[in-house]
Amino acid sequence: MKNINKTNLLSLSLLLLLSLILFGCSNNKSSKNTTLSNNSTNESSTNNTSSLTTKTTEAKEINILVFISGALDGNPPYENLNNGALAFAKNHPNVKIKTYEAGFNQAEWESQLTSLVATAKYDYVLTSNPSLPEICDRISMKFPNQKFIIPDAYFEGNKNIKTYEYNQYQQSVILGHLAGLITTSDMNNITKDQKNKKVGFIYAQEFPMMNEDIFPGFEAGLKQVDPSLSLDTRVVGNWYDASKASELALSMADSGVDTFTSIAGGAAQGLIKVAKDKGLYIVAYDTNSYNMAPGTIVGSGQVDLMSLTQNALQSAIDGTLDWGVASIIGVEDGYIGFYSDDPQFKKGLSENVYNQFMNWYSKVKNKTIVIKSGT
After folding, report:
1. For the chain, which residues score pLDDT lower than 70?
2. Which fold has domain 61-166?
3. Residues 148, 139: Cα–Cα separation, whole Å
4. Which of 3.40.50.2300, 1.10.1040.20, 3.10.20.340, 3.20.20.70 is the CATH number of 168-303+340-365?
């Protein structure tokens, strides 16, 4: 009987031990499975959230109004502004561009832009003209959520407006230096009487930058070549009257001016026609203009408006744009330069003028010569 009890007791103990082991293992497996399930659920939830966030960001449509204060055709700076916006949209499928040409009646620009802003369709208004900041400032008072990006202007203090002013003194010195080399050269149709020589500058209208930076810079460039050179400036009165610009150019040519420049928008077509007819020379601001009149336009300053437009829009969308601040950008930033690699440039000049200019300009590019306002 004792043996049986011992045997039964041993068997019962073993059975109990086995049950505990099996029960414990079962609980552990259940616990691990529960943990994996929670992790899977959490990971799935996180991934879905991430996916939704990405899709929401990508799907958010951004509408940009490109407001052209004039017309695109025949205005390379406006074409570059618009092309920069279109290039940006091409790389950002959620960005939509609306281009609006306001025409040449400056008195109507504010009412037109106000009507467009009032639709509340546009996240950003992109425009370019020295007179636009004041207009945008007034509109901003009525529509305080509207953002404006304005290259080629200077305005500070409004948290809805970002402006970029090119160092036009630098570009003017570069173009003035070339114009000085041309008008003192032996190129065809250059006036031989070098006494009291002038270079012609036809411009659309008065604005502060013209008097404070552009005229002084261009004349400084001329006087680097010959201190006796000076500037003959004539105003059209608007940005479109090519006939008036033609009259001014003819009068200047008759007085002995053989080299010109202009900042006159579409009105510059009148100057170009006169210069072509008389075999005279033009150095152009801002854009590669050689093909507009090969052999007549023999120099082109460079303002990289397309790159600036794209960089500004990217900063605005990223939330890093310093609204309310006016940035001055120039040669040292890579936004001001000269189109020296176009074959038409070398072809349009005498070998001597080309070599002299390139020797000087190479020093500007490598910063051996630094152009600063007032120098």
Report:
1. 1-59, 373-375
2. Rossmann fold (3.40.50)
3. 10
4. 3.40.50.2300
